[in-house]
Amino acid sequence: MAGLTIEAFISMKKPGNAIPSPSGSRFAMSVSQYDIEKQRTQESVIVGDIGSSLSKTDTVLDGLKLSGLVWASDDVLLYLRPGGAKADEVDCPIDKSDKEASKLLEARAESSGVELWSVHVKDGTKQRVGQFPKGVEPANMSFNPARELLSFSAEVYASDPALEAVAKIDKQREDTARGSDAKVYDDLYVRHWNAWSDGKVNKVFICKIASDQAGTLQLDLKAGFMSPIAHSKVNSPSIGGGAQDFQLSSDGTSLICMAKTPELPVAWHTRTDVYAVPVYARNKDEKKPLPLTTGEHGATSSPVFAPSATQTSGKAAWLQMDKDGYEADYRRIIIIDLETREKKILAMSEWDRSPHALKWSNDGKGLYLLVEDYGRTKIFYLALDSANEHPVPLTSEATVESFEVLPGKDHRLLLTISSLNAPNEAYLLEASSMAAKPTLTRLTQLNDLSKLGLEPAEDFEFKGGNDKTIHGFIVRPPGVKSKSADKKYPLCVWVHGGPQGAWSDSFHFRWNAAVSASRGYITLLMNITGSTGYGQELTDAIGNNWGGTPYKDTIAGVEHCLDAYPEIDRERIGAAGASYGAYFMNWLEGHPTSSFTFKTLVNHCCLFNIVNSIASDEQFFPEREFDGTIWSARENYERWSPHNFIDQWSTPMLVIHGAKDYRLPIAEGLSTFNTLQRLGIPSRFIYYPTEGHFVEQPANSLHWHNEVYKWLDEWLLGELVNMWMQYYIAV
User: Fold this and answer.
1) What pLDDT is recorded for position 624?
2) Which residues on adjacent β-strands are paired with residue 149?
3) Could you tell me which of 320, 152, 326, 322 has the C-alpha nearest to residue 226?
4) Selection from 500, 558, 478 nearest residue 524 by Cα
5) What is the DSSP string of 691-730?
6) pLDDT at 102
7) Which segments does the entry list as coiled coil (predicted)?
8) How many DSSP H helices and E strands does the chain contain?
């Protein structure tokens, strides 16, 4: 059996999203690769031509600790480096064991601000363009060639929202604390996801990048850094947001952005509003961000100007949910005439898919949509001047991770695509018209997995708990064919998080089905009730139903596969999940089945007692999921809480939790493990002090994978089962 080993998986190239040059003639991709032996992540940037299949790519940057990659022109890329960087040096030591080099580089970076650099893609010449004030971490960079404007976001203090004030206020706060590390809060968030709130807010900033007669780019220090929303209550990107939250107009005169509604407490509301504001206001009135959203609504996303639009002319579009407090509501497309302020809501009553992102076509007559659909993420095109409001699919397979509209009259898109058996690669999509079949040209081959013998994932369907059709993927070990009864293999059932999420035909760098299958497990990915990409009705149906229909779906799905696929060994079945999936492991623990038995469970960042959701960060989430607060709807919380069913617990379980998971605090994982231990159930607890809801550090990811499959192997493949069970019976 060949396959994808854990070590090969951890050390493979991890490409970012492909970004096009201004003319659309070239693309660039950042690539990171972890060296297990040296314990070092190597960062690089590749550049290639758009148009030819598997075009030759050149590595233009290597060995740097870089971020924020953007094109300044067809020949020049801009990127960020730590303070004190030098053109002829790397930004991190060759080997992590070189502690002195690490300390020197870290001290140098901390003593000065982040730097902006450029590289000429033809000859590799690197130049320092400028430096940001100390204490500032620029993010979400974008460059506007028309006005030579660099836009980015940064965290600043609301009391003095200038970049130059960040380090000064940091120092003042440190001096005032007089050695204390206490934090004082008068409102929420106290902490969010994996970090404690520090009193800073996000603002969009803009700076001028000047070019001298020799063509050398320099940050215009005279013009400095300015923010059109600095002295307003509009904080963009919103908490957890990114580059998709704001955009400059094509002429660089106007900014459109989305932000949390200032008057509403962030922890109980998902509502955000869309604003437009001139970049360089002429008076105080113009400085006020103009709200484009009105009335009651929920979250907004993807605000974008149409080509040639500004704050006061042309059109803009965004996505908008109806329900405040529900983060998985259906996203409607809103189009506004910026001169008349008239809005149009595209209902698309016969199309129940919810777009994730949108961009205008070059002629302004249509929108490209990124949409989850039946276990894939696809590109659709919606013609705005057509009587048919049903979007046309431009892709059908795999998952489009990102897309960029290329210049020109035809439909030309630069896509980043992955699948269950292949990580990100760049592709060119072309269609002369919507009547013509689009062509897809692969531009890169950064990871060649063709020799690993990975089996393609198979789609399957079955009738779920409410007699609804449920879709899923089954992924077999290398060389194992469908419905082959020559040998039987253990089954590992994965339950996704969310719960409003989905397994898709995409390459996941945490929960990777190819790795699981390569270990010898038939891996089952089912998009049960609550999943996205199958219509809003299925997504909404999990509300106040966490352990109800989704549980019935899961059991029905496993029973279907046991009947349909003779290669599955019904005596060796395990399950694993994270977040809601980990909650589900606790639910399975307390709800054993009669038709088959789960031999073991793997639980990553779980919920043990749902009443404890009051300790989480985003309070709108449990209040929506369980139809009220813990005091107004206590019976709903208790009904679906795993801790109320511990009298049925008996299945061996691996419990994993990160200390910095503030969405599902570590007490939930400890409560689960303590209960298992008190009941004498074989169990193991793995604690990651520096990880949050996700295990993201490469060394920890390597450890996580080794421990998870060690545990599964013990219970589904190995000889330790008898030893454990003898111990359990004795206790």
Assistant:
1) 98
2) 144, 208
3) 152
4) 558
5) --SS--SHHHHHHHHHHHHHHHHHHHTSSHHHHHHHHHHH
6) 61
7) none
8) 13, 40
Residue 579 annotated among the catalytic residues of the structure: yes
Q: Name the DSSP class of 83.
A: T
CA distance 114 to 133: 7
The tokens describing 391, both together, are 């979007």
- Bridge-based pairing of strands 598-604 and 653-658 is parallel
Q: How far apart are CA 137 and CA 654, in angstroms?
A: 38
Q: Which two tokens stand for residue 251?
A: 């002429």
Which residues pair with residue 367 across a beta bridge? Answer: 360, 382
pLDDT of residue 105: 59
Pinpoint the residues of the chain covered by CATH 3.40.50.1820. Answer: 456-730
Task: In whole angstroms, give the CA distance from residue 723 to residue 711.
Answer: 14
Look at residue 721 in the predicted model and tell me its pLDDT: 46
Asked if residue 291 has a cis previous peptide bond (ω within 30° of 0), the answer is no
191: part of which helix (H) or strand (E)?
strand 191-192
The SS3 of residue 532 is coil
Tens digits of per-residue pLDDT, 414-463? 999 999 999 999 999 999 877 788 999 999 999 999 999 999 999 999 99
Three-state SS for 566? Answer: coil
Give the per-residue pLDDT at 670.
Answer: 99
- What is the pLDDT, as a whole number, of residue 724? 44
CA distance 266 to 337: 29
> What pLDDT does residue 380 have?
97
What number of other Cβ atoms are within 10 A of residue 645's Cβ? 15
Element containing residue 558 per DSSP (H, E): helix 549-564
User: d(Cα 153, Cα 138) in Å, to the nearest integer?
Assistant: 6
- Selected catalytic residue, list 579, 613, 641, 683: 579
Structure tokens at 71: 């094109």
Q: Where in the chain is the domain with CATH 2.130.10.120?
A: 15-176+191-442
Q: Specify whether the CB–CB gap between 527 and 503 falls below 8 A.
A: yes
Helix (H, G, I), strand (E, B) or coil at 643: helix
The CB density around residue 728, as the number of other CB atoms within 10 Å, is: 14
Element spanning 522, H or E: strand 522-527
284-336 pLDDT, tens digit per residue, is 777 899 999 999 999 999 999 999 999 999 999 999 999 999 999 999 999 99
- Fold held by 456-730: Rossmann fold (3.40.50)
Predicted confidence at residue 435, as pLDDT, reads: 75
Q: What CATH number labels 15-176+191-442?
A: 2.130.10.120
Q: What is the residue type of 641?
A: S
Given 329, 373, 505, 661, which residue is catalytic? 661
The pair of three-digit structure tokens given for residue 26, joined into one six-digit string: 């070239």
- Side chain identity at 160, as an amino acid letter? D
Residue type, 506: S
693 belongs to the catalytic site: yes
Task: Write the Ramachandran bin of 76: left for phi over 0, alpha for psi from -120 to 50, otherwise beta.
Answer: beta
Structure tokens that stand for 721 in this block: 């089962």
Element (H, E) at 88: none
Q: Output the pTM of the full model.
A: 0.95
The pLDDT tens digits of the residues spanning 203-225 come to: 999 999 988 777 789 999 889 99
What is the rounded CA–CA span in Å between residue 592 and residue 192? 35
Q: What three-state secondary structure class fits 81?
A: strand
Options 496, 560, 693, 705, the catalytic residue: 693
The residue assigned the tokens 């709800």 is 591
Which single residue is written with the structure tokens 């790795």?
A: 515
Kind of pairing between the strands at 392-393 and 300-305: unpaired
354 in catalytic set: no
Q: Which residues of the chain have pLDDT under 50?
A: 719-731
Residue 477 CA to its chain's centroid (Å): 27
